[in-house]
Design a protein that fits this description.
By secondary structure, this protein is an all-alpha fold. The chain has one domain. It contains 16 helices and 2 strands.
Amino acid sequence: MRPILLGVCSALFFAVTFVLNRRMELSGGSWAWSASLRYLFTLPFLVAIVAGRGRLKPLLAAMKERPGAWLLWGTVGFGLFYAPICFAAAYAPGWLTAGTWQITIISGSLLAPFFGQWVAGSGGASVYERGRIPLRGLGLSLIILAGVALLQADHARELEPSQVLLGIVPVLIASFAYPLGNRKTMELCGERLDVFQRILGMTLASLPFWLMISLIGLADTGLPSGPQTLQSVIVALSSGVIATVLFFRATDMVRSSMGGLAAVEATQSLEVLFALIGEILILAAPLPSLLSWIGIAIIIGGMVLHSLFSGHNPKKQQAETSRQPHSSFAAGSRE
């Protein structure tokens, strides 16, 4: 239950991204600056946290061992996740972006066969066992996704086809990139690095990408305005630091269970609810229709089912966990 709670809290802080990104776009800010400034402002906070805990040198040593892998998966997990999200905000309301983002619930589950673990086979030999798609968790995720579809059904009919295309396709790309980069860097870190080190490593590895994106923003609108800079700082703290740490810690806690990972990733469906509330309060968005409220109820119901069934067989989950090393965060927190 604790990983689920952390996932819900991360969804709340992630929702700030969708609301403020939309607000910055409506005020004339460039999506490129919204994307790059978040990570440029996040970097000093993460450096201070990791260095203050005396774990900066181990991180740099680990990145030096496999710089190409860190560059690739850091760019995928952060670059190809957040740049498309900000691009979509230029063409669609925050609620649509947040709603479409929930496809990551299914995307994360579909990535399971691309990962695996070494387990003891017959005769004592180790066998590499690929992950399996958690069908029960995937079915529950589809329930949540159906609720999201109802939540935005009325609004989608009011949009131009171009808005729908440019507001959805980039988010679909992001929905696969985020869990893929997250899980691949888990493999890179193993037991050696905790969650703060892993996030800082991904941020450092994605810096070349963000510098290129910032050049796009400079060519598009010049230097960012004061309000956009301030809002980017808020997004960096809320989403780039707090939400990301909470989410990565939650996934680290259940890293040995594909069903547990699917359940934690499903908590991100609440982002659409938090984003909707934020747009109503900050951007004066209209209240949801009856159909949207039905969708909200389905999402909450799906979340409850996901939480219950993810811990339905604790003995089996404990057996799975015993074959795996402890999460990097847990190992680091005991030192």
